[in-house]
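Shipment paperwork, digital attachment
Item: protein structure file
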Amino acid sequence: MKRVHSTDAYLTITIAALAFLLSYTKLVDLALRAGYGDYAAHVWPLIVDGITIVATRGVLRLTGSRRYAWTLLAAGTGVSMTAAVGSQLLPPGPLPPVAAAAVSVVPPLCLLVAPHLAVQLARDAQARPGRDVDTTPDTMPAEAVAPTVEPEVAVETPEDRRARALELLATTTMSFRAVAKEVGVTDTSVRRWARAGQEVTQNRPDGMIRA
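Attachment content:
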């Protein structure tokens, strides 16, 4: 799909704004003739053209069924056109009772139909895939992140502990209790290993006291 040039977008918005302004003046005049006060008469066109704008957004944004949005768009456009034509064709002065009643019924009808379109837009936004995906430029793709390698932890067997305990007894002056704490066993196990290895205890200096 080709992108719309910024100049085209600005021209389209300008034309839409001018069209809204001209339509607004006609609808204000019609609302005044229907018996609305000065303030309410200036609000009435915003309701008519506002429902048309909201319906247009629904047609553009909804990914599911757009029938309801199209219906509101056609109805809003029809009311706006009918009101503009009626302001010119009807005799000057207050509107006939039937025409005034038709003008008065527009706001409650818009209040009835607009919330349902809002619900459709909200549900469609929730169901749209990828709505929570962070697309900021600083985000690094998942495939570019190097996996963390966990260091391998060597598992010490009972034989390894026994050998290390006997080595500490033979090469240091550590007590049985200190060796047991260093290896991670009880001092009773260290004493038993020492008695089983008589060749180690015989090589130790005389007079050494083990706690």
